[in-house]
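Homework help thread (please don't just give me the answer)

Our assignment gives two proteins as sequence + structure token strings and asks us to describe the second one. The first is just a warm-up. Here they are:
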Amino acid sequence: QVLLVESGGGSVQPGGSLNLSCVASVEMINYNCIGWVRQAPGKKREGVAMFSFGTLYYADDVKGRFAISKDNAKGTLYLQMNSLKPEDTATYYCAADPRTWICPGRNWENFRYLGQGTQVTVSS
């Protein structure tokens, strides 16, 4: 079953916080490559935070501000975003892939499964 449904986006002022959630299928929540990507208008998709084969990946510009977590029993992936900046404005997607070369190779453009996306806008 293909299921990735995000929620929790919205508009916040700089310095604010948001917590994104993604409900995933039982199969997907256990993939070795699952996490969050984002895409701003006119920009390439970029990886934000990932569970990647037993390690955590964070983009350099979110380290110390964002935290990824998941609850396998609930089938839910989370992204806690603190100290938000205007440059964090983007559509955020839950992403998952069973293949071995996506996360380790940071092939963010090639995820097999993406949710519908949730908009995050950071503006004063």
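The one we have to describe:
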Amino acid sequence: QVQLVESGGGLVQAGGSLRLSCAASLRTFSNYNMGWFRQAPGKERELVATISWSGGTTYYADSVKGRFTISRDNAKNTVALQMNSLKPEDTAVYYCAGRRSINSSTRTYEYDYWGQGTQVTVSS
């Protein structure tokens, strides 16, 4: 059974940092493109960042570019999201997702597996 388990969420003041981690039980983790998405109350789920199977290619939403960094460790089956200079508008539930494809995607519906989400709250 495939599982993606996020951790690292919490409450932080504006300007602070958090590091999210996702542990994957995917058998061939290195074959998966991974992504972080987020969903704020009353809003649609949106892309935050993606990383290719090798880690060589990354993509960031404009709203987080320069502040967030996605990374992966294929030996440990983990993907991380380092979030710096957090803003109140970053408040959301953050989801880790996996896509079994050699091609990256920014589309939510093209991801095959999802974690349960972790809450990130940024106070002003």
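TA reply:
I won't write it for you, but here's a hint about the kind of observation we're looking for: The chain has a mean pLDDT of 95.
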